[in-house]
Every structure is written in structure tokens, then in C-alpha cells.
């Protein structure tokens, strides 16, 4: 994985939002912490945060929280970008994003309130 991680670092400028999100997610699923690569992914994500979809935002936040990486600039960027996009969230996005921010100790009341308001509107989508 070292070779792959170093390759990601070298080519981070070529990565799109989906690439950044998927790579973060994959490393979290495998429970692999490669600090240099994660820092590079974070930098790339912050630069391209406006192009992140709701799923990209959620997966990236989830990945860093799962790996116990407290990257405040990244989480702030995700939180800021998630607020105007929370109407695009599905049920899993709601829960995973708020969980990730909470695990990392980031309290964003405007986002929490917006997500909760949107979740209430989507109650019929839940299998309750």
C-alpha cells in the first residue's frame, strides 16, 4: 500500500472530487492510516470542495472520522459546503455526515439544524 499511497501523493493534482472521496473511503474501509497521503487528500479536497457532491462530502467526512484523523480545515470545508447541499442528501448522508462531525468534535449548529430539517421533510423515504 506504500507504493499506492506515494503514487496518490504524487498525482493528487490530477484527482477529481470523486477520486479524492473514493480514495479516502477505501483507506478508511481498510483501516489504513498513511498520514502523508491523507494530508495530500485533505489539501486536494479543500481545493476542490465546491465540486464535491453530497455523497463525496459524506464519504470524505466519514473516512477521516473513521480513521480518527482530526483535520479541522477539511472538516470545516466539508461542513461549509454541506450546508447549501443538504437538500441533496439521502438518509445515509444525513446520519454519516453528522456522525463524522460529532466524532471529530466539530459542532456546526447551522448544518445540524439544516440537516435535521431536511431529514424531517424526507421521513416518508425512511423505512420506519
How does this structure look, described?
This protein is an all-alpha fold and 128 residues long. It has one domain. It is 69% helix and 0% strand. It is built from seven helices and no strands. The protein has helices at 2-10, 17-29, 35-47, 54-66, 72-85, 91-103, 109-121. The longest helix is centred in the middle third of the chain and has 14 residues, at 72-85. It is elongated, with a radius of gyration of 14 Å.
Give the averaged pLDDT, no decimals.
Answer: 90
User: How many beta-strand elements?
Assistant: 0
SSE-based structural type = mainly alpha
What sort of overall outline do the alpha carbons produce when their principal axes are compared? elongated
Number of helices: 7
Distance between the termini: 41 Å
Instruction: Describe the sheet with the most strands.
Output: none
Give Rg in angstroms: 14 Å
**Can you tell me the residue ranges where pLDDT is under 50 for at least 5 consecutive residues?**
none
The count of domains is: 1
Task: Name the beta content range.
Answer: under 5%
* Percent range of helical residues: 55-70%
